[in-house]
Every structure is written in C-alpha cells, then in structure tokens.
Amino acid sequence: MLLITCPWCGPRDETEYHYGGQAHVPYPENPADLTDEQWAEYVFYRDNPKGPFAERWMHSTGCRRWFNVLRDTASYEVLAAYRLDEPRPGGTR
Amino acid sequence: MTTESLPEHPDWLWRNPDPRPSYDVVIVGAGGHGLATAYYLAKNHGITNVAVLEKGWLAGGNMARNTTIIRSNYLWDESAAIYEHALKLWERLPEELDYDFLFSQRGVLNLAHTLQDVREGMRRVSANRLNGVDAEWLEPDEVAKVCPILNVSSRTRYPVLGGTFQPRAGIAKHDHVAWALARRADEMGVDLIQGCEVTGFLKDGDRVVGVETNRGRILAGRVGLAAAGHSSVLAERAGVRLPVQSHPLQALVSELHEPVHPTVVMSNHVHVYVSQAHKGELVMGAGVDSYNGYGQRGSFHVIEQQMAAAVELFPVFARAHVLRTWGGIVDVTPDASPIIGTTPVENLYVNCGWGTGGFKATPAAGWTFAHTIATGEPHPLNAPFALERFTTGALIDEHGAAAVAH
Ligand SMILES: Cc1cc2nc3c(=O)[nH]c(=O)nc-3n(C[C@H](O)[C@H](O)[C@H](O)COP(=O)(O)OP(=O)(O)OC[C@H]3O[C@@H](n4cnc5c(N)ncnc54)[C@H](O)[C@@H]3O)c2cc1C
Ligand SMILES: [Zn+2]
Fold first, then answer.
1. A14 in contact with B at a CB cutoff of 8 Å?
2. From the CB of B226, is ligand 1 less than 6 Å away?
3. Is the complex ipTM higher than 0.90?
4. How far apart are alpha carbons B205 and B217 in whole angstroms?
C-alpha cells in the first residue's frame, strides 16, 4: 500500500485518496483554434512513463483537497507531494 | 467439471534459435497475442520468415498471469464481432493445434446486484442475441441452479437480483494455449527468441526498417508490437504516442479444493470474479489499481475488498486459504477497447490496449493483426479498432458496457 503525504494532513494510507491521473495538463489556451488532432491529444493522450510521473491525487476521506504527487511508476517510490500552485519539483512540467 | 491430467511439460515444443540478421516480419512480445499473430501469419498468409522477440521468457507476461476467462458477451457490435470470432476460433483450436489446452465451456455468469445492473444486463442479453452471441437472462433461482454454491438469499448487503449467462463462455489453460501456438508457429519456421529485449527502432525517414535489441540489430520488413503493458513505452521509442495508461492488475488462487464451482462468476458491483481451475484452485480477480504502475504487484486493499465480496457471494469459501497472489501490467485505453492497426510510422503496426480482457481475444487478435501486417490493411474485424478513432471520435465505449467494471 502506498503511503502518501497530503500537503495539509500529513502521511496517510493510499485508501484515503482518489487518483486523478497526470498532473500539469493545461486546458487549451485557444480552444476554438484546435484541430481534431489537438483535441484528441488534449482529451485522450496522457504520458505513461516507466519512471517518475507527476500525477494528481485527492484526499477524499480527509481534507478533500487535490494536490500533486511525483511518483516513480516502476519502484512506486513517492518522490514528492506538493500543492497545485507549486511547480513540479526538479522540473518545469 | 473435468479432471483430466494436464499435458506434459513441453521443453521440446520449439527450437531456441539465435536471431538471424533479418526477417520479413518481427513481432515484439511473445505473449499469447504475439504467438497467435505469428501462427496466423504463417498459416493464413504463408509468411514464415518471422521472428517473435521476447524480453523475458515465452508467455511469461500477462499471458501467465491472467484469470483465463473467455467470453464474447460485449455490448457494442464491433466488440461482439471480434470477441465472438475469437470464441469460434477457441472452439476449434484444440483440434487444429492438436493440443488439449483444456478449453472448458462451463459458462460465465455476470451477476446483477442493483436495478441498474439488471437493466444493463437485460440490454446486453438482447444486444448479444442480435449479434448471434449466446446469452440468457437468469432470475435468482435460475442463477442458483447454474451455480448452487452462490448465495442468492435476499438477506445480503447486495443481493443477487439476477444475472446474464453465456453458456459457451469458459476458461482455458493459459500456459498450454501459448505452448500450443508456439509449437505450431515454430514448426512452420517462425523463430521464437526469448531473452531478447527490443530497446529501439531502426528507421529510414518515416519508415521502420528493423529493431535494436540486447542481442544486436535485427532488420525487418515489418514490425508488429504486441507488448501489452509496455506498449506505450516501446512505441514512444519509435516516435509513436499511444493513448494508453498502464495499470497493475492482480489475481490470486486458493489452495486446492474438490470440484465445487461449476461455472465462472463475475460481479462488477461487489467486484470479484471467481472460477475453479482444473486442478482445483479457486481463481479470483478483481479491479485494477487506480494509479499507473509497472511494478507487477497490486494493492493489498484490492485483495481485502475482493475477498469480502467473494465470501459474501460464496459463504462456502470462508475458510479457504490464499495460496498465491501476483500482478500483471495491463494497458488501458480511454474507451476500454483495444487498438489494432497501422501507426503513423510506415511498416510499424500495433496491437495493444486490451487492458484487463485480452486473453479471451488471443486467437482473434492474432488473426486480425496477422492480416493487418500481411496486407498493410486492417481486416474488417479490426478496422473499427484503429488508432484514428481517438481523433474521429468513433469510440467503442466498453467502459461499463463490457460486463466488466474496470
Ligand atoms: C491479473 C490479470 C487477470 C486477467 N484476467 C483476464 C481474463 O480473465 N480474461 C481475459 O480475457 N484477459 C485477462 N487479462 C488480460 C490479458 O492477460 C491481457 O489482455 C493479454 O494477456 C494481453 O496480450 P498478451 O497475452 O500478448 O500480453 P503479454 O502476455 O503481457 O505479452 C506481452 C509480452 O511482451 C513482452 N515485452 C514487453 N516489452 C518488450 C520489449 N521491449 N522487448 C521484447 N519483449 C517485450 C513482455 O515480456 C510480454 O511477454 C488479465 C490480466 C491480468 C494481469
Ligand atoms: Zn488532506
């Protein structure tokens, strides 16, 4: 079981959280200008790395707030947990 | 229930050749799908200058880890067509391959526990029948006749309100399926190469011309990816992005028991699937872990929930001991349907996204993928499952429709 640290509540078991997929996926700036390919990219395509991955989690049975986690998808090590208004540690995305 | 002894261990079933410098077709991944593709390339298309490259051991991926449920009671026409084609192939494969892999058509029951489940189930039965797929709606007393150890009392937390039944569905001995396909492919000249990991692709402009492996470069006229959970990691190295997410999915077995469980029972609402293997283990599966992962292990709380569900449905299992748990990595698409077809890179073909349910499709996946690779064009059965559907919006949305909840 993963041990994830909510930025507000501290470390809790995985079962307290809800998973939200890849983090830092911005809504298109000019939606009206997007091609079908770009819409497909935005709606359906997400990164799927074997290694560090920035993803969203929600503390559903706690403070009910969303935040981001940097986690290694191969080792399952939680590398960092940070608020939505903070940048991905060690990178820009 | 059948209690025949299993076929012998097959050290002698295929050669273990070293890779040759070039092939007409290289398939990446010797799971069921890769092996079936090689088999049908040789059998249906006469293409035998083929290598199947496997980073681990033959059929040691999801092929060795799945709960072997075979059924074709999918909702949408496109899915019913391809899974029913698979089921028809399953029905003749033991004889065709001359290998008894214990394909057992003991039926699959999909239980309904809510009014919405009931309506969904009845709708699916009608859709199945329109597509020539055998399906019945069973009331709780009829459910109990099919599987007497099921608790159909109305005094449980989520009572069984009925269920759909597909009598032709069932299970097969997965390892033996792989070995049966491998033996025939090998006999027809296909090189099955284990311990050979594809690490990159050789390209000439926008065309793939071979693969880089830990055992050197191998040239290929065409390359087919059948790498299941690792499809997107691999495709990315060829410059192709796939709309799949890899999730851990786990299963477990109990110690051996006398034959008590005559069919396959699936329940989405309380989320457990149970069958009894030929040897006697209870084989149980449940949902995927919600998060992406490649760790080949699943979360403990999933086991806890599936055991609670199993014991409520089957009180007789309360004292059964878990013998073994394991996990595989499945690739899930946004519409829970597979992707089989061409890619933006010429001569590179992809078979992926079967998620939690690709074992049942093994023969049809091989049949259609072989056709696509041999002709450069999709077969009518896999044409709807092209990568382009995510751009055109012609999704085959089997989430919640496919009689499976993940
Ligand atoms: C716990 C569990 C239960 C399941 N239950 C069912 C079920 O009841 N019914 C059902 O229909 N389906 C089920 N599935 C799904 C089914 O197992 C898969 O959809 C199916 O096996 C995928 O096709 P495959 O057999 O070719 O994949 P795999 O057997 O995983 O084959 C892919 C192969 O590619 C190899 N590979 C990956 N990358 C490389 C590389 N770079 N170079 C060389 N080789 C590589 C892997 O080692 C692997 O052997 C289940 C899966 C799991 C994990
Ligand atoms: Zn919190």
1. yes
2. yes
3. yes
4. 17
Tens digits of per-residue pLDDT, B285-338? 999 999 999 999 999 999 999 999 999 999 999 999 999 999 999 999 999 999
CA B141 to chain centre: 31
Q: Which helix (H) or strand (E) holds B375?
A: helix B362-375
Partner-chain contact A14 B301, CB within 8 Å: yes
Is the C-beta atom of B29 inside 6 A of ligand 1? yes
Q: In angstroms, rounded to a whole number, what is the distance separating the alpha carbons of residues B41 and B51?
A: 11
**Structure confidence by residue, pLDDT tens digits, A9-28:** 999 999 999 999 999 999 99
CA B59, B63, B68, B69 torsion: positive or negative? negative
**CA–CA separation, B263 vs B105, rounded Å?**
9
Report helix, strand or coil for B83: helix
CA distance linking residue A44 with residue B283, whole number of Å: 34
Instruction: Show the DSSP H helices in B163-280 as ranges.
Output: 174-187, 231-237
| Distance from C-alpha of B107 to C-alpha of B168, rounded to nearest angstrom | 6
Question: Closest Cα to residue B253, out of B178, B329, B321?
Answer: B321
**CA B329, CA B331: separation in Å to the nearest integer?**
7
Helical H runs in B314-377?
362-375
The three-class DSSP label of residue B291 is coil
The DSSP 8-state label assigned to residue B391 in this structure reads: H
Strand partners, B397: none
Nearest to B243 among A44, A53, A73 (CB): A44
| Residue A16 per-residue DSSP state | G
The answer to whether A44 contacts B334, with C-beta atoms less than 8 Å apart, is yes
Cα(B4)–Cα(B284) distance, integer angstroms: 22
The finding on whether B53 has its CB within 6 A of some atom of ligand 1 is yes
Contact check, Cβ <8 Å, A74/B295: yes
With beta carbons under 8 A apart, name residues in chain A contacting B243: 40, 44-46
- Cα–Cα distance measured from residue B248 to residue A74, given in angstroms and rounded to the nearest whole number: 11
